[in-house]
Amino acid sequence: MIRAAIITACCLLALGGCDRATDGDGDGDSTLRMAFVNDDGASLVAEESLENAAVRAMHIGLTTLERSGRVAPSLALSWRVSDDGLTYVFKLREAYWADGRRLTSGDVVAVMRRIVSPGSGNPLRDELMMINNAALIAANRRPARMLGVSDPRPDTVVITLAKPEPALLQLLADPAAAIIRSGKTPPASGAFTQADDAGDADGALHLVKNSAYYAADTVSLAGAMLSRTDAERAIRRFNAGELDIVSGGRLTGLRAARTVGDSQALRLEPTWGLYFYLARTSSGPLADIRVRRALAMSFDRSGILSRLFGVTGLQPAYSALPPTLPDAYAGSAGDWAGWSADVRESEAVRLLAEAGYTFNQPLTLSVAIPHGREHADLLAAISNSWGVIGVRVKAYARGTLSHRRAIEKGDFDLAAVERIARAPVADTFLQPFTCAVRLGGYCNPAVDQLLADAAAEDDPGTRIQLQRRANRLISEDAPLIAVLSPIRWSLVSRRVTGWENNVAGAHPLSGLAMTGTKEE
Questions:
Q1: HSE-up of residue 244 (Cα within 13 Å, Cβ side)
Q2: End-to-end alpha-carbon separation of the chain, Å?
Q3: H or E stretch at 80
Q4: How far apart are CA 232 and CA 75, in angstroms?
């Protein structure tokens, strides 16, 4: 059931449970019908698009993302940042939960302490380690009360950092940082609350407008029905007029989404993300760096993406850092990224020959991919290029859970992986390739040292340079074969207004509205 999934997701976020309705009914024409595309397993972490949308709709954070994707005030009406970037002072607005209790700075402190506590499953935990004493508290070496988040006044929160983090306000806008009271059914504080009927026969979650929300008079929708389904069914339902929005699509279903009846319905957004083939470097043929380098340099990413998908915004990727990060990170991939196709192919053949693989003694690789035509066709196109240098591929397409289990067990030579960041933070993509994580078995102490130096560095420019050097080393070692930076696809009915494409993928229900005329 969707409702059970929402409650589970909230617990996993260490944010408590979800609430019941306190506000009335909406009429059919102003109740949005929105479906989220099922997770296909490419991400190593289960996708929670529906859960995140529900939390964002029902609970507020210190900051939020408006419909353009920009950071905006939420519970924090305003904030000041010290010149050194280490102290943030937030002034809170007057806001209430649906049961009438006011949200105070003490509630914010309690949530922040839960996020970084030992054993916390909150997905933001590792990304908030820049808060003073957070790492020591997470390691159970300091009590939670020593966290650098304080409440000097009921309407004031002070966050003190151990090092500057320009993306802090963006991270605090994530649903995982929502200010939710502990307990099984905490009341809503956001624009919507859960309806008394919970959902419908198809398992959709029914939300209705929350009259206690501080900006309730700006919310146009009477409610929303949120559901989850596979890409093909979502597209069929949209074409049949049963859905107003389909959201959360990425590679799976992209080409089918381009065939919808209304060509203006398709919305494409860039992401802070990377789609790559993870190499099992601990054993097998890809323990040899020469083989990994040959695979990484020997196919034309731009040409393949253009032929297969033909959409704007789908950018090729050449390293562990996606091309959609700030320009300061650009150009830190291996030298081969700038070589001509002929030079790259010749060098790849030479590297494979050194490793003992030739056309007479070819290399055969097992590649794990999720189910989906796009995953299969992309691998087939890349395999054609690898075939030119004497590499053969056996593809193994699996369901969502089976694909993740195959990666956990190391049951692959290469495995398709997708990672999308919550904010443009380089560490999201570099940390998985540290010795502490050993993703695919990879470990290079020199990379660890550069990232440790970057973490300790206060100067943002120097930190970026250290991260660039770490990315360069990872690119040279090639524990991953970067392919592309994913785009999000959505289908949006002409009845819906207020939708704006943005790299953060922020489309708050509170910013959407419905026209009064249904499409024929």
A1: 26
A2: 32
A3: strand 76-81
A4: 38
What's the length of the chain?
520
Angstrom distance (rounded) from CA 462 to CA 292: 30
Cα dihedral sign, 350-351-357-359: negative
The closest of 454, 433, 178, 503 to 329, measured between CA atoms, is: 454
Place of tokens 């905490």: 186
Which amino acid is residue 457, in one-letter code? Answer: E
The CA distances from residue 234 to 1, 408, 490, in Å, are 18, 30, 10
Contact between 230 and 399 (Cβ < 8 Å): no
Query: What tokens appear for 339 in the block?
Result: 């070589």
CA distance 497 to 324: 27
CA distance 418 to 45: 9
Q: Shortest CA distance to 288 belongs to which of 221, 367, 199, 351?
A: 351
For residue 75, which of 101, 59, 95 has the smallest C-alpha distance? 95
Rounded-to-5 percentages of helix, strand, coil across the chain: 35, 25, 40
Single pTM value for the model: 0.89
- Give the DSSP H or E segment for 453: helix 445-456
pLDDT tier at 10, thresholds 50, 70, 90: very low
Question: What residue type is 332 in one-letter code?
Answer: S
What percent of the chain lies above the pLDDT cut of 70?
A: 92
- CA dihedral (171, 169, 431, 16) positive or negative: negative
Phi/psi-derived region of residue 441, left when phi > 0, alpha when psi is between -120 and 50, beta in every other case: left
Q: Are 176 and 115 in contact (CB under 8 A)?
A: yes
The upper half-sphere exposure of residue 492, i.e. CA atoms within 13 Å in the direction of its Cβ, equals 20
Q: Is the pLDDT of residue 60 over 50?
A: yes
